């Protein structure tokens, strides 16, 4: 029996549930077949990911329903640009991972050694779907730590979400067994796969996984009816290699399609890679040029705020269809049925049956206002964590103001009966000066300024 630290003891003590995809071996051992690692696990031991445990000859999952606080974010945070641009999603994250990347940007939840049980709360699929409905959000995203390792919860929740009219998003590194990948296509509408490197040696070195299995999984997702986008985190010294970028673009075009969007994502220092600088913008632009040269039609740069990095243009007349600044999307160039407003040609963008109309300016019922001034040009997102134990409050309102105090945009988050949730709020244009956050005094709000997307737990938060 392996020696367990306090975190693993907590995992075991907080409950085990039935696991799928495994076989019994001799001597009480089992083989997990959820991912291509196919761990052989002795009784009383965990597999590589530390989420699956052999309890007396039966494989159990130790993470079913053990979730971090859900977040409301724009779909763009998931490197998804061609499905419901600008839509709000409800992101949920769990614990553990079947890869082991030294630069992991979700290391607080993906590596069990860093687990902080006080941030974990047990929730059922029904509660998650109910929360999305209360928040009036139509897309549920399984994200942060890799959802492969919490397959059982993901599948059940996604099935229920679909039955309730929601769309489902799976954000993953795609290191998954082929038959599990196929099973997922039954319940997932959008796959966003972070393909870490197209070079097998680099892939193994950076993630301790096997590239070939990831490529097989991506092909299965692409063959299904689901929407697929691919992203590539460009880590200085690891993946900022022009030949690899070219090879990646060629693979996407040859094995998938030139229509599959490809995102080059800017790295920020994290986990054991705190000494590595952010990716140079010039290299990201070179990567995009190479991928376009190779014939891909939709290539983007993520985690940057430069003009044109994340916009979508009409493939026929070149008009601007979706104009993005960071995580904020303006879809004025596209019609409600997915056509270019200038030339009328149908575009490769999935549009909801009812496109957002002009933004409604509502008069909020609030009695507390906090002003947040943007001060750090690397941090252009806020995460607002809400704890609401009252029935009084119905909404949080965020007004984005420009340099002259003019109102640029108002975001209203309705939170009827929701006791805790987080919300991502980003600068909407370069010259935005401050955000006014308005809510009732019964609500406790904590705010953190973030580079890129949300991470757990939030550090350096302040109460407002
Ligand atoms: S899911 Fe975990 S236990 Fe199962 S094969 Fe993969 S790493 Fe091993």
Task: Summarize the structure in short.
By secondary structure, the chain is of the alpha/beta class.
Number of domains: 3
CATH superfamily of the largest domain: Aldolase class I
**Low-confidence runs (pLDDT<50, min 5 residues)?**
none
**Helix amount, in percent?**
10-25%
In CATH, the topology of the largest domain is named TIM Barrel
Residue-averaged pLDDT, rounded?
91
- Structural class comes to alpha/beta
Question: What are its keywords?
Answer:
464 residues, alpha/beta, TIM Barrel, Hypothetical Protein Tm1070, Chain: A, 3 domains, twelve-stranded mixed β-sheet, 20% helix, binds iron/sulfur cluster
Describe the protein.
The chain has 464 residues and is an alpha/beta fold. It has three domains: 6-61, no CATH class; 66-310, Alpha-Beta Barrel (TIM Barrel); 368-463, Sandwich (Hypothetical Protein Tm1070, Chain: A), CATH 2.60.290. 20% of the residues lie in helices and 27% in strands. The protein has nine helices and 27 strands. The chain has helices spanning 6-13, 107-110, 125-134, 151-163, 178-184, 200-207, 211-223, 242-256, 281-293, and strands spanning 17-18, 22-24, 30-32, 40-41, 52-55, 58-61, 66-67, 71-74, 88-92, 121-122, 139-142, 167-172, 190-194, 227-234, 262-266, 299-302, 312-313, 320-325, 328-330, 368-373, 381-388, 395-401, 407-414, 420-426, 434-439, 443-450, 462-463. The strands form six sheets. It has a twelve-stranded mixed β-sheet with strand order 16-15-14-13-12-11-9-8-24-21-26-27. The protein has a four-stranded antiparallel β-sheet with strand order 20-25-22-23, with no helix packed on it. Strand 3 (30-32) and strand 4 (40-41) form a beta hairpin. The mean pLDDT is 91. The site of iron/sulfur cluster has 12 residues, from loops.
């Amino acid at each position: 029996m392996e020696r367990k630290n306090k975190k693993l003891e907590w995992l075991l003590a907080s409950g085990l549930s039935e696991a799928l995809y495994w076989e019994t071996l001799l001597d009480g051992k089992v083989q997990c077949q959820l991912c291509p690692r196919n761990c052989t696990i002795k009784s009383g031991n965990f597999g590589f990911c530390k989420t699956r445990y052999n309890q007396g000859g039966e494989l159990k999952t130790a993470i079913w329903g053990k979730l971090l606080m859900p977040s409301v974010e724009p779909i763009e945070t998931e490197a998804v640009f061609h499905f419901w641009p600008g839509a709000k999603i409800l992101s949920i994250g769990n614990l553990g991972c079947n890869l082991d990347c030294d630069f992991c940007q979700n290391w607080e939840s993906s590596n069990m050694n860093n687990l902080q049980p006080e941030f974990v709360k047990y929730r059922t699929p029904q509660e998650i779907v109910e929360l999305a409905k209360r928040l009036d959000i139509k897309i549920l995203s399984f994200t942060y730590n890799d959802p492969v390792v919490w397959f059982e919860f993901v599948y059940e929740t996604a099935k229920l979400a679909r039955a309730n009219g929601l769309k489902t998003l799976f954000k993953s590194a795609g290191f998954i067994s082929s038959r599990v990948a196929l099973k997922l296509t039954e319940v997932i509408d959008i796959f966003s796969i972070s393909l870490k490197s197209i070079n097998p040696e680099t892939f193994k070195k950076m993630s301790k996984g096997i590239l070939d299995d990831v490529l097989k999984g991506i092909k299965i997702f692409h063959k299904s009816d689901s929407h697929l986008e691919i992203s590539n985190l460009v880590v200085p010294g690891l993946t900022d290699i022009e030949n690899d970028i070219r090879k990646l673009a060629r693979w996407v075009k040859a094995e998938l399609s030139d229509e599959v969007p490809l995102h080059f994502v800017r790295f920020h220092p994290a986990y054991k890679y705190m000494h590595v600088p952010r990716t140079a913008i010039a290299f990201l632009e070179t990567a995009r040029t190479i991928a376009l040269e190779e014939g891909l039609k939709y290539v983007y740069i993520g985690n940057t705020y430069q003009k044109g990095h994340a916009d979508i243009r009409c493939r026929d007349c070149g008009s601007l269809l979706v104009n993005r600044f960071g995580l904020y999307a303006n879809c004025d160039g596209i019609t409600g049925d997915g056509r270019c407003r200038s030339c009328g040609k149908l575009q490769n963008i999935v549009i909801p049956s009812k496109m957002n109309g002009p933004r409604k300016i509502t008069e909020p019922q609030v009695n507390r206002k906090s002003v947040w001034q943007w001060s750090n040009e690397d941090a252009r997102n806020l995460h607002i964590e809400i704890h609401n134990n009252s029935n009084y409050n119905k909404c949080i309102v965020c007004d984005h103001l420009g340099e002259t105090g003019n109102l640029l945009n108002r975001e209203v988050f309705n939170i009827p009966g929701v006791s805790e949730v987080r919300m991502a709020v980003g600068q909407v244009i370069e010259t935005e000066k401050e955000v006014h956050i308005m809510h009732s005094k019964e609500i406790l709000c904590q705010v953190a300024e973030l580079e890129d997307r949300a991470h757990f737990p939030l550090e350096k938060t302040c109460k407002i």
